[in-house]
Amino acid sequence: LVRRYAKELHVDESTIPNVTISSEEPSIARGGSIISGDGADNQTDQQLEHRYRPIEQILHAEGFNPSDEHHQKELFEASLRATTNDVVLYLHGNTASRGATHRVELYKRLRSLNYHVIAMDYRGYGDSASLSPTERGVVFDALAVYQYVTSITKNPVYLWGHSLGTGVSTHLLSLLTEMSLPGPRAVVLESPFNNIREEICAHPFSKLYRHLPWFDYTVSKPMYNNMLRFESDQHIAEFRQPVLILHAEDDLVVPFDLGYKLYRKALDTRGKSWGPIEFHRFEKSSHYGHKHICRAPNLPEIVVRFFHNYRDAQY
Question: Which of 116, 162, 171, 290 is an active site residue?
């Protein structure tokens, strides 16, 4: 059963017998070093213009190949720098990749609201490096991408985490605060849990086992001891940015109660002068479940209002 949970959470099964995961992690999923978060601020607009060719020049350059990784990178960076839109960095949940259908639905919804959307895959997901994901590893992957994005654009950046990505988001924000680095303007937590231990106990595939006396010892504790904790109920009190929680009452993967529990914890532990925390529930009758809040007719109004309210706020 432990191995079944390990597979679901993408833990390297070879570590399970010794109940340890090495703390030695590469900084990012693809080689390289952590990028300075103030890279864009240390360069003049003229210097940045020389560093990046305009999109039109790239597309019409002799030998341009949209399948070439170098050309893709140059086009991506030129597009990011050229946009006048605010940027949303999306951190996805546990299954599949950034290309999952329900995720693409959300990207399109956000694009229709004139947000520039960037989605990433952590190590071990999609086409990222085939390293075994750990909490520390995926958080550092998110940190590397966040710093990369903010080194290119000066536009406001928002963070959006879904499911497991909410745990990555709160840990990332805590880390940015610890490192005294500028964070995003605000964060959206879609279908969040309070910590991985309670989420494991509430997950559908634990239903037959969660009441057995050995469940906590053989399943929950090994995950916790392996530093797979995703303690959003702790991290949410370690950063000041405004928080919007979205949760559907009929979510069977991450029960609504866990998201509301995180909200109540935030109300009790966050500073009074910090960014506000908002909670929006979606009724069971809407049938959005775990993945389809993106289809809510009122989602654009909720998101635009939230981002607009805190776009220029300082906390």
Answer: 290
